[in-house]
Amino acid sequence: MVIEITPMTEDDIPGAVESIQQAFANDPYNHWIYNDRSAFSPDRNRVSLRIRCLWGIRNALLFVAKDPAIHDENGKVKVLGISMWMPPRPLNQKETWDECFQRWWVWAKQIRMNLWWGRGGLNVKRYWIWKRSQASVQSELWTDSSGYYFCNIVTVLPSAQGKGIGKLLFNVVTERADKEGRRCYLESSKDEPNIRIYERIGFCLVKEMNCDDDGEVCKLFCMIRDPRLVE
């Protein structure tokens, strides 16, 4: 297996969405925020993920993992995994006009999606509990004035796991962070086996985030990676 890590293109989005949906099918956060599974709409979720991927291509560090020898049912090289990272933002840096436009672009697309598809089972109350908890924790932990590479998501198709693809999707950014002397940050929705895996990449557990909806808690594990010396 020869894995290539490349920036995502629009042609990669269907495969990326499939990777995310399969990898997160039994994820604790996914089941907490979509707690009414009978109302969950995979089609609406695909539309939502496509919007996020389009935004990520323009605004984030978005990568796909492929093996040129493996193709999907349409004859295209199959997406085996993806990673999306937010680039570091210095703590005192203000949002640019383009970033503001991109944020409003996503908002407008999501509003249009909700008007057509509805919420698709999304528990809006829990979504905002998570966003407030995340903002509070990041405000506490992000003390480095140069900013952090934020690992927003890393997924690998279940059929392709255990082959080192996830590590490659991390390395494409952690190696850059090492050269720049920057820290990396992530929030994991699973402790086992994720924490042990991330520790081998250099991350350390620094805080547990509890998203509490009247006693129904989703626990996220916040981890930071210090830059390694580059010889």
Task: Provide a descriptive summary of the structure in words.
- The protein has 231 residues and is of the alpha+beta class.
- It is 42% helix and 26% strand.
- It is built from seven helices and seven strands; from the N terminus they run βαααββααβαβαββ.
- The protein has helices spanning 13-23, 28-33, 42-59, 97-117, 124-141, 165-180, 194-201, and strands at residues 4-7, 61-71, 77-86, 148-156, 183-188, 203-213, 216-225.
- The chain has a seven-stranded mixed sheet, with helices on both faces.
- A hairpin with a 5-residue loop joins strand 2 (61-71) and strand 3.
- Helix 3 runs antiparallel to helix 4.
- The longest helix has 21 residues, at 97-117.
- It is globular and about 55 Å long.
- The chain starts with a strand and ends in a 6-residue tail after the last strand.
- The mean pLDDT is 94.
Q: Which stretches are low in confidence, meaning pLDDT under 50 for 5 or more residues running?
A: none
Q: Give me the side-by-side strand order of the main sheet.
A: 1-2-3-4-5-7-6
Q: Assess the beta-strand content as a share of residues.
A: 25-35%
Quaternary state of this entry equals: single chain
Give the helix/strand class.
alpha+beta
Mean pLDDT comes to 94
How much helix is in the residues? 40-55%
Distance between the termini: 29 Å
Radius of gyration equals 18 Å
Number of β-strand runs: 7
Main beta sheet = 7 strands, mixed
User: H/E order of the elements?
Assistant: EHHHEEHHEHEHEE
- Principal-axis shape: globular
Number of helical regions: 7
